Amino acid sequence: MNTETLIASLVMAAIVVVLIGWFIRAMLRGWRHRAEQQAALIGTLPPLPDTVGPALVPPTKGLYVGSTLAPDWNDRVAVGDLGFRTKAVLTRYPEGIMVQRSGAMPIWIPDESITAIRTERGIAGKALTHEGILAIRWKLPSGAEIDTGFRADDRRELTRWVGQEAA
């Protein structure tokens, strides 16, 4: 490789690195801007209860896919850590649903806030070829409705959850 080719290659590599850095920075700014816009709409999440009754639906292991603003299945909530995917365990109690997420704060969905529990083909950028995502629609204390998505490790376990709105 001659000197001119080496210099041209290095200049091109530097331009590519700068462009990739600029795109990543723009994406992070967009995510932060979305979170700022949604903060007032989402408000605070319901507090965790001190005690709960016996589990109505035993713990279901899987993946917390994320939460979206209802009814748009692709409008991901960016406030706090609600928009990040993580391993999770979903458990139904008489008082509500507990979503225990690894590496993130647990989410408590009070029973009186739940408006629908159904299966979907996609939510928050996660799309499947079959209805394998459990979507829990619930109303936040702020009045906004969101869908919380969960993909079970074993899809057959979702049948225990569907139709559990009025437990």
Polypeptide structure, described:
Keywords: Membrane, Transmembrane, Transmembrane helix. By secondary structure, this protein is of the alpha+beta class. It folds into two domains: 42 residues; 107 residues, Pleckstrin-homology domain (PH domain)/Phosphotyrosine-binding domain (PTB) (PH-domain like). The chain has one helix and nine strands; from the N terminus they run αβββββββββ. Strands 4-3-2-1-9-8-5 form a seven-stranded antiparallel sheet, with no helix packed on it. A two-stranded antiparallel sheet has the order 6-7. The longest helix is centred in the first third of the chain and has 40 residues.
Brief synopsis:
By secondary structure, the protein is of the alpha+beta class. The chain has one helix at 3-42, and strands at 57-69, 86-93, 96-101, 107-110, 114-120, 122-123, 126-127, 133-139, 145-152.
Count of individual beta strands: 9
How big is the Rg? 21 Å
Percentage of residues in strands: 25-35%
Largest sheet: 7 strands, antiparallel
CATH classification class of the largest domain:
Mainly Beta
Overall tally of domains: 2
Average the pLDDT over all residues and give the rounded result: 85
Known CATH architecture of the largest domain: Roll
How are strands sequenced across the largest beta sheet?
Answer: 4-3-2-1-9-8-5
Q: H/E series, N to C?
A: HEEEEEEEEE
Taking pLDDT < 50 over at least 5 consecutive residues as the criterion, the unreliable ranges are: none
CATH superfamily of the largest domain: Pleckstrin-homology domain (PH domain)/Phosphotyrosine-binding domain (PTB)
